[in-house]
Design a protein that fits this description.
Layout (H helix, E strand, L loop, with lengths): L16 E2 L11 E10 L2 E10 L5 E10 L2 E4 L3 E4 L4 E9 L6 E12 L5 E12 L13 E2 L5 E5 L8 E3 L17 E6 L7 E12 L2 E12 L6 H4 L1 H33 L2
Antiparallel strand pairs: 1-2, 2-3, 3-7, 4-5, 4-6, 4-8, 8-9, 10-11, 11-13, 12-13, 14-15
């Protein structure tokens, strides 16, 4: 029996490349390259983590995530610019049905001031002979984020950015397209940071579990004042008021001259 499609939205900025905001000495940019294998109910990952920025990352640790399960690797005290480290992670996931299943590899680290960051890679592991997915994430957009905003589509967030509605179920008819907005809140991400963001869609079809992903980018900017956010409207209102005032002056001048002309003997 064909099961109805369902859409899971999991909030989360960050992919293989995570660009935290500039620090005093420069910036940290983390690249994640995993090789993942599923065997006998266990998901294992050989992960290469590289720092392609110009500032050293501190207390670096890789984390493998599958659903609600996590496996954390050893903490490396420091990862210098241009340096790489390897991590071996394994996680029991049980017997998975035929299809494509999403997993995450996160990298936790801090800058020289011990401010925490997290980079995330989102990937898919295939079980059995899975047919092509019938759905796709065509686009993932995010406006610049200061304190709160929305992601149009889906999410899987690093620590620092929170998706306040992390999952939604959406029914789609054949060939239907739909835009889904997901609210996000900046908890600790620094101004100037740029985070890749992932959209994740999962559904079941004729006994096969399918998952597809999309990617976008969110930039962290400074909070704007009430006047800055509505500056354009203020100028429009001010222009309208000035036009009305000038019109009133012209009308009063014309009306006054007419009255004076009528009052002459």
């Amino acid at each position: 029996m064909r099961r109805p499609h369902w859409l899971v939205l999991v909030g989360a900025p960050a992919l293989a490349l995570c660009l935290p905001g500039p620090a005093v000495a420069g910036s940290i940019s983390i690249s994640i390259l995993p090789v993942v294998e599923l065997r006998e109910g266990a998901l294992s990952a050989q992960v290469k983590v590289s720092n392609v920025g110009d500032e050293a990352a501190q207390s670096v640790a890789a984390v493998l995530v599958f659903g609600e399960h996590k496996a954390r690797g050893e903490i490396h005290p420091s990862l210098a610019p241009g340096a790489s480290m390897d991590a071996t992670l394994s996680l029991a996931v049980g017997d998975l049905g035929t299809g494509r299943w999403p997993y995450q590899v996160a990298v936790d680290y801090t800058d020289t001031n011990q401010y925490p960051f997290q980079a995330i890679h989102l990937g898919l592991v295939t079980v059995g002979n899975s047919p092509p997915a019938k759905m796709a994430v065509s686009e993932l957009k995010a406006d610049p984020l200061s304190s709160a905003g929305t992601l149009r589509m889906s999410v899987v967030t690093p620590e620092g950015i929170e998706v306040t509605v992390p999952a939604q179920d959406v029914k789609l008819a054949a060939w239907e397209e739909r835009t889904v907005s997901v609210p996000i809140v900046n908890r600790t991400a620094l101004v100037g940071s740029r985070y890749p963001v992932f959209g994740e869609v999962q559904y079941d079809d004729d006994g096969v579990h399918q998952a597809v992903v999309g990617q976008g980018m969110v930039a962290i900017e400074a909070a704007h004042s009430f006047f800055e956010v509505r500056r354009t409207w203020f100028w429009i209102v001010a222009g309208v008021l000035v036009a009305l005032w000038l019109g009133f002056l012209v009308w009063r001048g014309t009306f006054g001259r007419s009255r004076r002309a009528e009052s002459r003997p």
